[in-house]
Amino acid sequence: MTRDTTEPTGPARTGARLRGARPWAALPFLLALTGYAVVLALWWDRLPDPVATHFSGADGRADGWTSRTGTAVTGAVLLVVAGAVWTAFVRRPALAGAWATAGFLGVLPVQMLRANLEATGGEPAILSPGHLAVGAAVAGLAALAGWAVSRFVVEEGRPGAPAPEGEPDARLPLGAGEVAGWSRYTGSAVLTALGAGLVLAGPVVLAAGWWPVAPLLMAVGAAGLGLARVRVTADRRGLTVAPAVTGRPRIRIPLDEIEGADARDVRAVADFGGWGYRVRAHRTGLVLRSGEALVVRRAGGREFAVTVPDARTAAALLNTLAARHGKV
């Protein structure tokens, strides 16, 4: 007899609420970056070079200029950095602030470019109160949208929350002839947002003329997207972690290397120093979010952790299979 513990689908899987604040903090910055790239592509040939980028005085006349390329790159980098900071540290009550920041930082550069296009007769560009009012209005509307989204968000991995610890080396009861397998998909909103942002920033940087930088940004972004969603499998072969799209490269820990497994609560920054594949003293991990993680103790005392839902079931199954293999 075979027992299948693969991932559930439908309403039981998704629930009625949005999980985690970080993806909803990253979303408005991703939208703002996309809009900025589109505006640059449409207006690029009409923009002066250099572009008026600093304005002062009561009438907001331009008194500082930056190259067209520098202006484009600065606006994109500002959105990416601000989005990364908000995504890394946001909590549900602050989502309105994240959306407001994205709205303002997304609209203000566009209004500045618009002011350059509106300058006629050789007169300096003017960033008027009307231009700033549009940015403030968009920021206010974005803040309302962020507040509305926050009403549906349930945070995961809150500092100080009780750790969902499983019993040490708990086992899943299997009959003598039973074979079991467990599999779950898990992903990182942070890596998805940053990867998509870098990929989208690539064409903007390329259009701005910085062609050596654009391929690098897009390559790093594509790598981040490739690791942003993985499949974690526990079965007779041991533990396997592989990218959901390509299946390669993969991490495999065979049963004969597993001393034991359990579930723990981890914090991406505090425990591993960030997201992605992390290496620390006596432990490594694929950390895609904060929250529940499957931790496998390997021969020699090293540990490997992967953040994944239902880690307790996976740990119990691995302990049972490893015991059959003579290790636990």
From TrEMBL:
Keywords: Membrane, Transmembrane, Transmembrane helix. The keyword Transmembrane helix applies. The chain crosses the membrane at residues 24-44, 70-89, 96-114, 126-149, 185-204. Residues 36-74 form the DUF1648 domain. It holds the Pfam family DUF1648. InterPro entries: DUF1648 (IPR012867). This is DUF1648 domain-containing protein. It comes from Streptomyces gulbargensis. The lineage of its organism: Bacteria, Bacillati, Actinomycetota, Actinomycetes, Kitasatosporales.
